[in-house]
Amino acid sequence: MQTAEIILKLFLATALGGLIGLERESSRKPAGLRTNILICLGATMMMILSTLLLKGENASTGDLTRIAAGVITGIGFMGAGTIIQSRGMIIGLTTAAGIWAVAVLGLVIGSGYYLFAVIFTAIIITTLLILGKVEAVHLKKGTHHYTVKSKSSKKVLLDIKKIALHEGIKFKEISHKKEGPLNIISFVFEAPDENEQCFYKSLTDLKEIIELNID
After folding, report:
1. CA distance 201 to 194
2. Is the pTM of this model over 0.70?
């Protein structure tokens, strides 16, 4: 394998992984631009390294297949780490599936199937971006006003933002004020009913929240 070919594969992995990462970053998902690039680069490099190490050693196609399978198995643990379960609700499945797909993309690039890699990337972005908008149109979004009372404002606010990040919720307005010994955090957002219900259930798990009101 020529040096120029290896460089081409690595740059292509950076570009295609970055395109998917940009969509994930714009949707405020945990696995964003850098994460997707690194996953794609890592999987690509594993295939390149495998080919170099097995070259000239009477290696069979089965050897490379086992290495690819090992990469997919390993990336599965990372994907599992992005999934959150709260009161029977599963959050982060799309992110986990995206991580797995980006790793597969890296293997495709590392194997030298560039056209298939580009087509695969286009399908992934179409699924995430365009179909995501179609879902948003068909899922009725409502405006929700939340007011949270707690003793500790910094930790609660950080936890609320983390939950909102996993749910893909963007706050339109957010304010904070002190009322005696309590901190009052108010925020407004638009979301489908299903997302709002998951968000609400996750908030009720926070022990720091003393009172939660919805207008």
Report:
1. 11
2. no
